[in-house]
Design brief:
heterodimer, A: alpha/beta, B: mainly alpha, Amino acid/polyamine transporter I, 2 strands, 76% helix
Chain lengths: 402, 368
């Protein structure tokens, strides 16, 4: 009997203590933030979060309310701002499901480092969101635009960055850990993709934006922001962004056209691309060799070409090679001349191949980088022609001359 | 005899392996790579080799008195009075070590999972389970180890295999960037935490079935555990990179967070955390058992079970006292505790061996 009583006591005690509900949070007590914008006002951070409206996103019913809502607060630090939002929001902001963090260009020019520490320290924040820079805009404005296809704008920004990196390749989908690794690395400076609002933002913020077939306003990724440590110093164009991705072996697929020998254009679909950046020291001078191997299929022909002849393919390969080398060369040269920061990781390549020489080189690396010789080699392999061999354009023209 | 159970050599090997993995799986990658950077895997190999030598020395000491526990052996080697004094001193080592485990458990859960829960609440619950396991005796928790082993192996494989797609081999380069010195420095903690702390197994030598196979089982267990740790270190460097491994307090948990297969198998870190919760539980239980058993033998008690509650309270009280905050604690782990381990867990058994041989020479010389 005594034993039973003791057991009962233990059971009750355990039931009280091991439920794990000390800091429990119910789903309907949380405001799930999917997008986070960071601006700077004076020396304070203006933080805006895009929070999903649960009833709008779940299921098929929608009552006409916007799928997300936004809270904003200005404070000395990110956490202060997030907590200050509870004075407006009925729920606590929960950032474990963040999809995208937008940092305004103005803040990026002052330095993004301070704003990032919170993200890497907070146990709630995970590492699966992308970081982008709002180009010529406030971060908060980019998070106000309503979007089609994906109802939650932050999810759309996430998917769009992911897809554009994989299919067109001018953008870099950068997660926090990669950004921090680049920030602390001595042989590489970070880049982030730019995000801009196109069209009329006034309408974009209203329901009208998703009512018409062609949205009056939309969000578009454009260009790569070049950083010196954590400060933004300039932009690369989409084409230069592609070159960046070719150098960094970050091409999954893209499309590229070249001029045909006799005028007109032919376009290739890049299927695979692999690149190696090798650093070496020759005659006590650092040099970089970039070797890109690209596999492509002919995708679009707008000129007269006899694709049934192997020589034509060879000629096309040569042309494509030449064009890619030019692109990489001019991009590297522009970064060397205009920005003088090593965003390509050439320093890392030298550090890996010759750690001893790197020890002396790293002290003045960005200066050395600006004058470093870069040798680009491209192997372009064209393998398939698509569904047809010679274009029907060819036949069309022959009939004309007859 | 306070302990009447016997365990098989298989159970012993598994226990050695789990204790080797122990808390090292959680804290070691960060500590070791803060010195050795991308060469931590070399530190790991050095650690494993030196560790196996240490295990060999331990089993040599154990084989001298296979019928006695370490506490009894100390008393035999050093004489009744001095021996008792030294044995009492020796018992402090497992005590301090269990306190650190309890502390780690509480810190880990409050840092990564339940930020608002008081650390003490977690430590009390954890210690309760440990007390409970120890009261059931050696045989029972050796079998627990056997039962948990497939689960631990499965979780570990899950962690490693699902992260292979994210591995970047160039993160290992350049090898030996700053020479061999930092690598050696990084290997100190790699030798101390997993391997030197195995010396407490000398306390259970009399309770193992086949005395002949003890050395083999001991070495096997340490080798397997060491390989698990080396693989973990390699994967943390390949996936997180040396910088982030060193900067993160619990790299293994960061690794688990990275698991993402096809955007549907992700956010499984709480599940993977079970891996080190189990191994830390096994290590703490074993140490707590050793502490109580040793204390009982020192005090010439018939059983150790009545000691478990008061010593359990002692641990709960000591774990907040051992360090005021996590910075102090991490400093302790990185800078001081490895040397403490070397003194207590390596020099001490060597000292015993030397005394034993000197004594034997004196004893046997008049006869010849």
């Amino acid at each position: 009997m005594k034993r039973m009583g003791l057991l009962l006591c233990i059971c009750i005690l355990l039931a009280v203590s091991v439920t794990g509900c000390w800091s429990r949070r119910e789903l309907n007590d949380l405001a799930i933030a999917v997008g986070l914008g960071i601006d700077k006002v004076g020396d304070k951070y203006k933080v805006s979060v895009q929070v999903v409206e649960p009833s709008e996103v779940a299921g098929n019913k929608s009552s006409g309310v916007a799928p997300v809502t936004m809270y904003q607060a200005t404070a000395n630090s990110l956490l202060e701002a997030l907590r200050k939002m509870t004075t407006i929001s009925p729920r606590k902001i929960y950032i474990a499901h963040l999809r995208i963090v937008v940092i305004s260009e103005a803040l990026a020019r002052e330095g993004i480092g301070d704003a990032l520490d919170f993200m890497s320290r907070d146990p709630e924040a995970r590492n699966d969101f992308y970081v982008v820079i709002a180009k010529d805009a406030k971060a908060i404005d980019t998070l106000k635009i309503l979007t089609n296809l994906e109802r939650v704008p932050a999810v759309r920004l996430f998917s769009s960055l992911d897809t554009s990196e994989k299919q067109w390749a001018p953008t870099m989908a950068v997660k926090l850990d990669k950004l921090i690794a680049d920030l602390v690395s001595e042989g590489r400076h970070p880049v982030l993709t730019g995000l801009k609002v196109i069209g009329d933002p006034k309408i974009g913020e209203t329901k009208k934006n998703v009512e018409t077939i062609l949205s009056p306003a939309d969000l578009q990724y454009s260009g790569l922001a070049v950083f010196r440590k954590d400060k933004l110093i300039g932009w690369l164009s989409d084409e230069e962004g592609k070159a960046y991705n070719f150098i960094n072996n970050n091409i999954t697929s893209t499309a590229r056209s070249v001029n045909c020998p006799k005028g007109g254009k032919v376009t290739f679909r890049v299927i695979r691309s692999d690149s190696k950046v090798k650093g070496s020291i020759r005659d006590e001078r650092p040099r970089i060799d970039i070797e890109v191997t690209t596999e492509a299929h002919v995708a679009e022909v707008q000129c007269s070409l006899d694709l049934t002849k192997p020589e034509t393919i060879k000629e096309l390969e040569k042309l494509a090679e030449r064009k890619l080398i030019d692109l990489i060369d001019t991009t590297v040269a522009r970064v060397q001349q205009d920005y003088k920061v090593d965003i390509f990781g050439f320093g890392e390549a030298i550090r890996r191949s010759n750690p001893k020489a790197w020890k002396t080189l790293k002290k003045n690396w960005d200066h050395t980088f600006a004058n470093i010789p870069v040798n680009v080699k491209v192997h372009y392999k064209i393998q398939q022609l698509g569904k047809v061999s010679n274009s029907f354009l060819e036949e069309m023209k022959e009939q004309k001359t007859e | 005899m306070p302990e009447n159970g016997k365990i098989s050599i298989r159970q012993f090997t598994i226990l050695v392996m789990l204790v080797t993995i122990g808390d090292s799986i959680l804290i070691l990658p960060s500590i070791s790579s803060s010195f050795a950077k991308q060469d931590t895997w070399i530190s790991g190999i050095i650690g494993l080799l030196v560790g196996l030598i240490a295990v060999y020395i331990f089993s040599a000491l154990g084989n001298l008195y296979p019928k006695l526990t370490l506490i009894q052996a100390i008393q035999k080697i050093l004489g009744k009075w001095f021996g008792t004094l030294v044995a009492a001193l020796f018992l402090l080592f497992p005590l301090i070590t269990i306190v650190t485990f309890t502390r780690e458990m509480g810190d880990f859960i409050t840092t990564e999972m339940m930020a608002e829960t008081p650390t003490l609440a977690i430590q009390i619950l954890f210690t309760c389970i440990v007390i409970f396991a120890v009261r059931l005796g050696l045989e029972v928790f050796a079998r627990t180890g056997e039962i948990f082993l497939p689960c631990i192996i499965l979780l570990f494989l899950l962690l490693v295999i699902f992260l292979i797609p994210q591995a970047e081999f160039e993160k290992l380069l350049p090898i030996l960037e700053n020479g061999i010195k930092p690598v050696i420095h990084g290997s100190f903690s790699f030798i101390a935490y997993p391997f030197l702390e195995l010396v407490v197994f000398l306390m259970i030598f009399p309770y193992i079935n086949q005395v002949r196979l003890i050395r083999k089982g001991f070495l096997q267990g340490a080798l397997l555990g060491g390989l698990v740790l080396i693989i973990l270190v390699v994967i943390s460097i390949l996936v997180l990179g040396a910088d982030e491994t060193a900067r993160t307090i619990y790299p293994s948990y960061s690794l688990a967070r990275r698991i993402s297969i096809g955007l549907f198998f992700e956010r499984v870190e709480a599940m993977v955390a079970l891996l080190w919760m189990l191994t830390i539980f096994m290590k703490s239980t074993f140490y707590f058992y050793v502490f109580n058993l040793g204390l009982a033998q020192l005090l010439k008690l018939k059983g150790y079970r009545m000691l478990t509650l008061p010593t359990g309270f002692l641990i709960i009280v000591l774990s907040p006292i051992i360090s005021p905050n996590i910075t102090y604690y991490n400093n302790l782990l990185a800078e001081y505790l490895p040397y403490y381990d070397v003194t207590c867990y390596l020099l001490f058994p060597v000292f015993l061996l030397v005394i034993h041989f000197i004594k034997n020479r004196f004893k046997s010389s008049p006869d010849t």
